[in-house]
Structures are given as structure tokens and as C-alpha cells.
Amino acid sequence: MTGSPTAETGQPLSTAAKSRRPRKALVVIVLLAITLAAVIATLVVYLVQLGQANDLITEQKKQIEEQSELLDKKETFSAAIGELLSTARSFDGVLMTSIVPTDKYEHFARQAWVHRWNSNAVDRDIEHVVAATAELKVLLAAASTQASTNVTGTVYETVTDQLGGGFVTSTLEDADTLCGADVLGCVSSDDPYIVHFDAADHALPYMNDVLATGIAYHEFAHVLQFTNPQPTTTALDAFGGDSETMADCYALTYLPGWKLHHRVWVSSYQYYEVDIGYGYTCNESQRQVIRDWYEQLGYTTGPISQS
Fold first, then answer.
1. In this model, does residue 268 exceed pLDDT 90?
2. Distance (Å, rounded) from C-alpha 76 to C-alpha 263?
3. Could you say which DSSP state residue 297 is in?
4. pTM
């Protein structure tokens, strides 16, 4: 009976067994394919997640570097503001309060706060502060030179340098044309740090050092008026709002022996009657107003606010 056909199938037993083996192999292959696909899918997901993580790390690293750079720039700005204020302290006591533009410096500080997350804007803020410091240093150097020289060779300049500490310059020119009137000297609100003295009047035969000194005091009062607007507005009330009589009163108050009328002898037998000023001699009450006004003047370094 071994090896003979059976009644049910009509085929040898060995032939039936061989026909089932390929099916098992196919199942294994399918399972392996499914498993491999799952592994590949898992690997792809992992790689995507890894890529996203790397991108996040790179972005975070970039942000950290940018924040570190911003922090360095903020420290640079702070140091620049510190140097600016240190330079400004050299002006403490200068009678012309507006000589140091504190409002502009506070604007720099406010802008730096607004720009605190903008690297390029902070760079510009630093440049502005550095430039402002350089301007102050140039002004200090110019004042030192002005105070130690006398370009016009006149008493006007000598007195103006003494009163203004070198921060106010003097010119000898056609002041009448410049000022649009017949004047001994004038100061313009456009540039109150220059006193213009009239060359023609300076050449008059009766002009002497005493008169030149009084004229310089009067004109310097105008410098103080223009460069200290707030206290000047109050003081002017005592003079009916007249800045000229106030300037005369400044000279009468602070220049010993000064008066508005002079007899100037030019020889042993010839003299001139000379009136300097605007014809009104201020009283003691008005002179006290001048003293109180003058005591308020002067630049003082203060803190810079960002608000």
C-alpha cells in the first residue's frame, strides 16, 4: 500500500504535501514585508521628529545668540550713555543752561527702550550717543581755545571770555547790517553763543576800555536771556517785558561803577558826553530781581530718564 493512490484523492500522499509548502513561505514573506514596512514607517517618523527637533534646537540656539548679542549691545549703549553724562559734567556751572541739550539725550534713552529688541536700531542709538559725546568734547576744546586767545584783540572779547568761560565767542564786524539797526553790539536768538560787536562804533574816538566793558556786559546779558528762557520769562516781568532795560540792569548790578551816561575826555580840553544803553537806570528792587535771576542760572548734570 505504500506509495499507492488513495481512494479519496487519486494522488500520492507525497505530492499533496509538496503543494502546501509555498503557501507557508508566502505568509512568512508577507509578514516580513509588513514588519519591514512598519519598521521603515517608524524610522521615517523618527527621522522626521529628529529633523524637527534639530530645527527647533537650531532656532533656539539662534535666539540665544541673538539675545546674547542684544545684551552686549545694551551694555554698550549703557556705557556710551555713561560716558556722555561724564562728559556733560564738565559743563556743570556753565551759565548757559541750554548749552547741553539734555532733552535730546533723554530722547536717545527713550528710543533705546523702544528699540530694546531691535539689534539694528540699538546700533543706531549707540551711534547717536557716541556722536553727541564727541560734540560735547569738541565744544569743550573750542571753549578752552577761546578762553586763552583774543582773535579780535578787543576788550569786548576779553570780557566776554571771562563772563562766558570761553563758551561764547566775539566778532568785530558790521553789526548794524547784521542786526538791522544802529547798534553797538547784538546777540541773535538763532545763535546766542556769538556776540557781534560793531566795528565802526569800536573805531569812534571816544570808545575806550570802560565803555567797551559795559557794552560787553550788556550783550552778555542777552546771551544769558536767550540760553535760560524759563527764568528769564519770569524776571522780565519786573522790566515790563523789556529785555534791553533788563540787560542794562544786569550791567548796572554786576559791573562795579557802571553807569549809562559818561563824560569821556579825549584831550585836556575836549570831551564827549556819551550815553550807553537805553536811558533807564534800574532801582534796587529790580536789581534784586537780577540777582535772583542770575542765581538760578547754570547747567547742572541730571539723570537721564527713559520714561
1. yes
2. 63
3. -
4. 0.76
Side-chain-side CA neighbours of residue 287 (13 Å): 10
Nearest to 304 by CA among 68, 70, 72, 108: 108
Distance CA 248, CA 69 (A): 58
Strands of the 169-173 sheet, one edge to the other: 169-173, 191-198, 185-188
Read off the C-alpha cell for 113.
Answer: 527702550
d(CA 88, CA 101): 10
The cell for 291 is 540777582
Show the CA angle centred on residue 224, arms to residues 142 and 236, nearest 5°: 170
Distance CA 217, CA 211 (A): 10
Say yes or no to pLDDT of 58 above 80.
Answer: no
pLDDT-wise least confident of 46-55, 146-155, 243-252, 262-271 = 46-55
- Angle, helix 243-254 to helix 284-296, in steps of 10 degrees: 90
Give 99-103's long-range contacts (Cβ < 8 A, gap of 24+): 99/139, 99/167, 99/193, 99/227, 99/299, 100/136, 100/299, 100/301, 101/132, 102/302, 102/304
Query: Between 21-88 and 102-114, two packed helices, what is the crossing angle to 10 degrees?
Result: 170
- Between the alpha carbon of residue 144 and those of residues 134, 159, 174, 236, 300, the distances in Å are 15, 15, 27, 32, 19
Is the pLDDT confidence value at 17 over 90?
no
Q: What is the mean pLDDT of residues 105-111?
A: 84
- Could you give the CA distance from residue 250 to residue 269 in angstroms, rounded to a whole number? 33
